[in-house]
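ok new one. same drill as before - structure tokens go in, u give me an amino acid for every spot. 255 of them this time. try not to just spam alanines like last time pls lmao
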């Protein structure tokens, strides 16, 4: 039987989901995207997740369900949310989702999911040693993987550099909001990655988020010891990583 699980990626603007073939890391059908409700409270988002799942009907019955959120997640409880409604702070998110969808779900950080997807199916496939995945989007997300094993909830977007929260200087949204030239943005991104490199000495950096489409405009100009490469799974990484995690790592409580 083909190993399949359902992945859902919750972002600030959209909730996206699809079943994933875990042999190949490919979606088995087109993904469904529903705009994130505003305000994006856990209850409102849980309803959206239930609606999204219902669009797949019986086809996905019994599949493990993995869900990403842009938050620190500890045992199904979301602890910190920089760019989502503050009701997610200290929220039993796995329970809220489980009651909305009528069964257990696995919840993990969005960048951790993207890192897993790149590790098993994308730009970091086959890499041993230390891989640091970063997503440059509204904020900066991170995933640390050592010899293929995830160290969850790393939050390297919030390290302080030169007196600033790093994501407030180097996230992709800042480039747009402050109308920065690529040259100006490259300086900030250089400072960010050289700091990570000094602290962690990774063997590989992978850069995801929408801006990875423009990787040729900034990645080749960075001066780092470790190779730095664009993510390959683009906007499917969250879905794929969530499905992988639900299938391979998480066991539903009371299962
Ligand atoms: C959050 C992280 C999240 C990242 C990307 C950050 O602001 O703190 O949890 O992974 O944004 O969404």
């Amino acid at each position: 039987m083909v190993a399949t699980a359902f992945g859902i990626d919750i972002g600030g603007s959209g909730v996206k989901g699809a079943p994933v073939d875990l042999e190949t890391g490919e979606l088995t059908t087109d993904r469904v995207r529903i705009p994130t409700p505003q305000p994006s409270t856990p209850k409102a988002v849980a309803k959206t997740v239930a609606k999204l799942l219902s669009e797949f009907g019986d086809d996905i019955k019994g599949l493990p369900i993995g869900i990403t959120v842009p938050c620190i997640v500890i045992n199904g409880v979301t602890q910190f949310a920089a760019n989502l409604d503050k009701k997610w702070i200290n929220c039993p998110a796995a329970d809220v989702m489980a009651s909305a969808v009528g069964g257990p779900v696995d919840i993990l950080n969005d960048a951790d999911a993207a890192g897993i997807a790149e590790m098993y199916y994308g730009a970091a496939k086959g890499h041993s040693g230390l891989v640091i995945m970063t997503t440059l989007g509204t904020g900066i997300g991170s995933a640390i993987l050592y010899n293929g094993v995830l160290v969850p909830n790393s939050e390297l977007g919030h390290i302080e550099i030169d007196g600033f929260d790093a994501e407030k200087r180097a996230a992709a949204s800042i480039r747009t909001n402050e109308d920065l030239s690529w040259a100006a943005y490259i300086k900030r991104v250089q400072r960010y990655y050289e700091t990570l490199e000094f602290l962690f000495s990774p063997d590989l950096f992978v850069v995801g988020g929408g801006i990875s489409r423009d990787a040729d405009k900034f990645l080749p100009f960075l001066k780092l010891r470790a190779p730095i490469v664009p993510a390959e799974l683009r906007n499917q990484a969250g879905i794929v990583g969530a499905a992988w995690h639900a299938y391979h790592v998480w066991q539903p409580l009371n299962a």
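Residues 18 and 223 are 38 Å apart (CA to CA). and btw The pocket of beta-D-glucopyranose is lined by residues 70-72, 82-83, 109-111, 135, 137, 139, 141, 155, 157, 167 (CB under 6 Å).
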